[in-house]
Design a protein that fits this description.
The complex is a heterodimer. Chain A is mainly α. Chain A has 24 helices and no strands. In chain A, helix 3 packs parallel to helix 5. Chain B has a single domain, classed as Non-ribosomal Peptide Synthetase Peptidyl Carrier Protein, Chain A (Orthogonal Bundle). The longest helix of chain B has 15 residues.
Chain lengths: ~525, ~80
């Protein structure tokens, strides 16, 4: 069962009706937990053991960490002003070490499962290649089907543990409530990555039915389906046709294909987010936003602050900060100060952390070399633009280019779009070799050809019409959203206009949308 | 406080730090600035800003940063 199936719509309607029944009010979170596990099973995961282990480990770990925090607080309170400061500091250090051990153990179990299941074959395959044993990746325990959403719920759980360890939140004492936080169905397959501090009050309290929530939720669901079915699913066959025959395509067609894939992936992934956020809104539970019009970004670094926001902020808070202030980063920083100009030397700890993060982000997406290259490509561009920034500013000053110049901003946006489109050669190809061949063709066998077959293979006249109109609306809405949330503008419209917008959108989905999910599959990002 | 302001001015001369109360929330300081700032604070005030301290509320204003530095100094 995918989110864009009729089965899901029926599942969600039944859940909503049950959710708002008067006698269920007190037990809404119990219903959500049951619904989440039913959804998870219907989505194809018959083996629940991994998510259950993660839940139990996270639950116990959080309680133990919380207990350590309380013990420390009580000790400091009782001995402040009585014992020497150094003694209190030593005690805090001791507790800190104990907390590190608990956190390490829990992260080891949760991350260990993810590594063995998702990366076992990749790691053993590479080890085998080094030692001349090609069949090492065929070891039976490494052939476990990767459970849906394992990358998502693992990181969500680790984030919760680290927050408790920091004392940012208290641990949840009810195992089943922890289970709901880990498995909440709208976010389990593709995110967003929620934080316990934000989600706990929303998930575990009762919600009254609200027309505003229903109306806003339906708007978002409708908009999500529009993006998915009218734009993404109509573009998918064309993108597939280009990259299935990449050997025969010119570099020009492949570059166009990369740009189409950028648009398709954005419509697909942000469409999914709109649908799940809309569903969650109907239930009175707001989810974190995952997109902020990424194609308006003026640099790759900004793009990553607007695309898959919750994943990027997870990596920033739980990996980038600890790494960049670690002893190793400080050491590199000191060396940098001796040999580099001050403007670059101050960036050395960040560069150290970014190098590890981009490698991890690449591997998080998939256990393959092409994603390692994808991570390196991202890291190199971001680090290079950080280091070259002072020179860029000097050039802009010399050429009298102002940062607020609309034409210059447009140039920056197009440049960023081209960079992120080129990055798509890694996820779109089915092998590392394929990615590199596509990249080679784009740069060395460009051969510009303006025929319909070269520019829009498999695209029929109706596809031009549907995708064209779809994209125009999408671009218009994106510009409006840059200024103010779209739903606020819609809500200000008179009743007749508002309903006319809903009906037109619905009619467009029904007439322009692709309904054959067998042809289009689920959502692109579910594979991660 | 003056020493801290000097560090901040060196990092972003165009920002009026005395007036800002949402340096992190409003994106005036990004994560790279924050890391560079922590390095400078550690050296200038002889403290060790740790992972637990890397929270927006500790860096949203000069006053909050100074509060954190004082707390870290008092812990020694």
């Amino acid at each position: 069962m995918t989110i864009n199936s009729l089965a899901f719509l029926i599942f969600f309607m039944v859940l909503t009706i049950l959710y708002y029944l008067p006698f269920v009010k007190k037990y809404q979170w119990v219903l959500l937990l049951a619904a989440s596990y039913i959804f998870y099973t219907l989505a194809g995961n018959h083996n629940l053991i991994y998510i259950i282990i993660t839940t139990i480990v996270t639950y116990i770990g959080a309680i133990l960490l919380d207990r350590k925090n309380t013990i420390q607080e009580e000790y400091v309170k009782a001995h402040k002003g009585i014992l020497p400061k150094q003694e209190i500091k030593d005690y805090k250090e001791k507790i800190k070490k104990e907390k590190h051990k608990i956190t390490f153990f829990c992260v080891f179990i949760n991350l260990g499962m993810l590594i063995v299941i998702k990366y076992g074959s990749f790691l053993m395959g590479n080890v085998g290649r080094i030692f001349g044993k090609e069949n090492l990746s065929d070891i039976s325990f490494l052939q476990i089907a990767v459970p849906l959403g394992i990358s998502y719920y693992t990181l969500i759980s680790i984030g919760y543990l680290l927050d408790v360890s920091k004392g940012k939140c208290k641990s949840e004492k009810n195992l089943f409530k922890t289970a709901l936080f880990v498995s909440y169905f709208p976010q389990i397959t593709q995110g967003p990555f929620s934080r316990f501090t934000e989600m706990a009050p929303r998930l575990f309290t009762s919600h009254k039915f609200s027309y505003e929530n229903l109306s806003y939720g339906c708007q978002r669901i409708l908009w999500g389906f529009f993006k998915k079915m009218v734009i993404a699913d109509r573009m998918k066959p064309m993108v597939d046709a280009i990259f299935e025959n990449y050997q025969e395509c010119s570099g020009f067609s492949l570059l166009l294909g990369c740009m189409y894939f950028s648009i398709q992936l954005y419509a697909d992934f942000s469409g999914y987010m709109d649908i799940v956020c809309g569903c969650s809104n109907i239930l009175g539970i707001e989810l974190a936003e995952n997109f902020k019009r990424p194609f308006f970004s003026k640099s790759l670094a900004e793009y990553w602050r607007r695309w898959h926001i919750t994943l990027c902020s997870w990596f920033r808070d739980y990996l980038f900060y600890p790494l960049s202030i670690s002893k190793a980063a400080v050491k590199f920083g000191r060396i940098g100060k001796k040999i580099l100009p001050p403007s670059i030397a101050k960036l050395v700890p960040s560069i150290f952390a970014l190098s590890i993060i981009w490698l991890s982000t690449g591997l998080w997406h998939d256990a393959s070399w092409r994603y390692v290259f994808w991570g390196i490509y991202n890291g190199v561009i971001i680090i290079a633009s950080m280091c070259l920034e002072p020179w860029f500013i000097k050039i802009e000053k010399k050429l009298n280019i102002k940062a607020e110049n609309k034409l210059f901003q447009g140039f920056q946006m197009i440049r960023t779009f081209l960079i992120i489109s080129l990055l798509k050669v890694f996820p779109i190809a089915n092998s590392t070799k394929g990615s590199l061949v596509i990249l080679y063709k784009i740069f060395f066998e460009f051969q510009m050809e303006l025929s319909r077959a070269a520019c829009f293979p498999t695209f029929k006249t109706e596809d031009f019409f549907c995708v064209g109109i779809g994209l125009l609306i999408f671009i218009y809405v994106s510009f409006k959203q840059e200024k103010a949330p779209m739903h606020e503008s819609i809500n200000r419209c008179p009743f007749v206009v508002r309903w006319a917008i809903y009906l037109v959108l619905l009619l467009m989905i029904l007439t322009f949308g692709v309904f054959d999910t067998g042809l289009t599959g689920g959502f692109e990002y579910a594979q991660y | 406080m003056e020493k801290l302001l000097e560090i901040l001015k060196g990092l972003k001369p165009e920002v009026e730090f005395e007036k800002e109360q949402k340096l992190i929330d409003d994106g005036i300081l990004d994560s790279f600035d924050l890391v560079a700032l922590v390095g400078e604070i550690n050296e200038a005030f002889d403290v060790e800003v740790e992972f637990e301290d890397m929270e927006p509320e500790n860096f949203n204003s000069v006053e909050k940063m100074y509060e954190m530095i004082e707390r870290l100094q008092n812990e020694v």
